[in-house]
Each structure stands twice: as structure tokens, then as C-alpha cells.
Design brief:
Elements lengths: L13 E4 L3 H12 L3 E7 L3 H6 L6 E7 L5 E7 L18 E5 L3 H10 L3 E2 L5 E2 L9 E6 L5 E6 L8
Parallel strand pairs: 1-4, 5-9
Antiparallel strand pairs: 2-3, 3-4, 6-8, 7-8, 8-9
Helix pairs in contact: 1-3
């Protein structure tokens, strides 16, 4: 039976499948200076029901971004994955937008950590609700798009 009640929901974490867990953990450490809250191997039976892969085993790490958002990095141990086309125009592709206070510094750090920029520098947003902001996409080690976003400057009262 379908009802018209709203579903109460909130973000628990952002999960990303990676090809090399330790390299991805190092990428995030080099970019934002964060260490995993924990890492472990998950091979509990219930995970087969959650993931759709009976008997799955995962290397996992949980990182907490500076705003409290949890990032879950997963490397499948016994299920063979394949690289997918990560072009952002493809339906089903997602990106993660990360607000930064100094996009130039963040851009330099993420590129030094191994990120691949989609444009030479961050771009000025020239119209719309984010006019004055600066933003740009950078791909992580597995090609996942990360958008760096610096809010527009706050107008000073006269």
C-alpha cells in the first residue's frame, strides 16, 4: 500500500568503490589531511544481501570530511569489477561537490595528491544563484569526479 507520507531521510555516508584502498586513503590524506576513522575487512554474511554479491568480501575505510560527512571507500576483494566510463555526461554518473574556503590552494593540493583536473584552473561562475563562486571538476585516482566549490564572496554592508 502506497501512502502520501513523506519519507524522513538523511545522508548516512557517501560510498565509493575504489581499485586500491590504500592508494585512495593516501589520496584523501594528501588532499585534505584526513586519516581514516577505521579500516577493516568486511566479510559478514549479511553483506551479500546488501550488495547483491553472496559471499562478498570488502576492504573498507571510513573517513570523516571536515564538515562531518562520512566517506566510505570500498575495495571488493573477491568480486571482479571492471572500469566503467566515468564521463560526467553519462546517465548514472555522479559527482561529489566539496565546499572549500580557498579553491586555489585546494586545487593545488588535490592535483599534487594525484587528481586529474578537467580544466586548467577553477572557473568563475558568472550567472545564476552561485554567481561569483568558483568551481571545477577534478577526477580522483579511479576517475570519480570531485567538484571543488568556493562560495561567492559575501557582500560587505555599506
Amino acid at each position: 500500500m502506497v501512502t502520501n507520507h513523506e519519507v524522513q531521510a538523511s545522508l548516512v555516508h557517501v560510498g565509493m568503490t575504489v581499485s586500491d584502498l590504500s592508494a585512495s586513503v593516501q589520496f584523501w590524506k594528501d588532499f585534505l589531511g584526513i586519516e581514516p576513522l577505521w579500516t577493516r575487512v568486511f566479510d559478514d554474511e549479511y553483506l551479500g544481501g546488501v550488495t547483491g554479491y553472496p559471499g562478498v568480501s570488502l576492504d573498507a575505510a571510513i573517513l570523516e570530511l571536515p564538515d562531518g560527512t562520512m566517506l566510505e571507500l570500498l575495495q571488493y576483494r573477491n568480486v571482479q569489477g571492471s572500469q566503467i566510463d566515468m564521463e560526467t555526461a553519462n546517465p548514472g554518473n555522479v559527482h561529489i561537490a566539496i565546499r572549500v574556503d580557498d579553491i586555489d590552494s585546494a586545487w593545488d593540493r588535490i592535483v599534487a595528491a594525484g587528481g586529474t583536473p578537467r580544466s586548467p584552473t577553477p572557473t568563475l561562475v558568472t550567472s545564476g544563484p552561485n554567481k561569483g563562486a568558483r568551481a571545477g571538476y577534478v577526477r580522483d585516482l579511479d576517475g570519480i569526479s570531485l567538484e571543488l566549490f568556493q562560495s561567492p564572496p559575501v557582500a560587505k554592508e555599506q
